[in-house]
Amino acid sequence: MLPSAFDVLGPIMVGPSSSHTAGALRIGRMAAELAPSEIKAASFTLYNSFAKTAEGHGTTRALVAGVLGMDTDDPRISHSREIAAERGVDIAFELVASAPDIHPNTADVTLFCEGEATVEVRGESIGGGRIRLSAIDGAPIEVTGDLPTLFIRHRDQPGVLGRLCTAVAVAGVNIATIKTTRRAPGADAFTVIESDEVIPMELLDALIEDPEVVYGRVLFIAGARLEAQAAFDEDFSSASALLAAAQEMPGSIGALMRRREIALVAQDPHANAAASVDAAMEKVAKVMGEEVRDTLEEPRPSLGGFLDGEAKRVLDHERALTLLGGDVEGRAIAYAMATVERSDTMGVIVAAPTAGASGIVPGSLIALGEALAEAAGLPLSPVVSLPRFEKALWCAAAIGAIAQGNASVSGAEAGCQAETGVAAAMAAAGLTQMLYGSPAACLDAAAIAIANTLGLVCDPALGLVEYPCQLRNAGGVAQAFCAARLALSGVESPVGLDEALAAMESVGGALPAALRETAEGGLAQCPSILARCKDCPHS
Length: 539
Description:
- By secondary structure, the chain is α+β, with helices and mostly antiparallel strands.
- It is 46% helix and 15% strand.
- It has 3 domains: 1-133, CATH 3.30.1330.90; 149-219, 2-Layer Sandwich (Alpha-Beta Plaits), CATH 3.30.70.260; 239-288 and 378-533, no CATH class.
């Protein structure tokens, strides 16, 4: 199942990292959803990349914020530990820097609740703010949130599972998957039921009346979307399928992606699908408009100290702007850099498709949108409200969805090619659509951008999303403009987007762990960077 547009252009989040900040928050929040009673204390064990950059990425604060029930864009995240203390919730952390058999971004969360009840959850942040739960109370389990999920803890007794399934059937809920695990015969068991439709709370109320059920929860992992293939006629599983659908239906890739999103939301009987989808995209556009200008107007140092006003210096250098690549591309680079600066000061940004690559899509599309508005005599503010801009966002989301569904957008899994490379492909397609390129040209532009960023490693200095991340966002803008220019000129990519993404995934798997967001190779190991580590509180 391919993700929603708002799994790609999102989450809207406090920076600096979609995997280490937004993903961590969601792990904490999902653990809290499973708590059987009021939380009195919480302990966290962070592993591998989570452990190595816990403070610099705000991971500790994000986990606590999640346990306290905050959303990814809550401005209180940076003060979550102080808020926990005010509420009387005790917090403890343990850091395990090397655990080779565990996912790079893993956290164990133990919650101590009212009445001496406890719950233990292991969560993994898998990129772009998405997570999966891999263990609950020591029992191996998999909850991704790709579908609405019902979690039931019950005693391992004959007939219990049959009664659970009967209750689900009586409620008219279709079971997509069901899995039951237990630690020992006769002990507590855990049943996870995924459905391809909304799970009514009345069903949960009926289930927990069973005397063998300990407790149950309907899990709402942020970003979960319903499978809409039955309600959506066109195949959206690959770039080639998308192109075929776009050729059959007059219009753009952006229009097709919006139609698919409406089909997703329409399966919720309580939703006004079109209005809900348009409002969500308007919010994304609004935050993008804010994030590209914030630190241009008020430069400030980042958490790790690598960034402090670079974006404004780029924008203010008029000679470089006008002579090297043109004013539009120059503005786009400055806007992309400004977005990263806002993220790295724990400001609110849109992960697109990740926080580490968040500047490329808004920087590119807003700069071009402003240029088109100027040429047409339209007001620049707010250019993000123009239909042409939002349609380009939908097109970019389509490319990101295909990349996320068929390859990866995680630097920890496939290197920076999966983050800034995919973002450049998204931006290239969006730029091409804004200039009325055909669906085929949009996909060619995306494929060229992937090809030109193939093999790019993820080597954040001190493990922070600052250097070289900001500079690679600037480079991603340049790649997006180059790819769009080529595609609009009729230059076709000999390798289609599907093959390019497959190659990217293969290259990502071949990269050693030291070059996949661990800060153990590449530029992160240069002497000048290592010298900064001696007194750095964020490493």
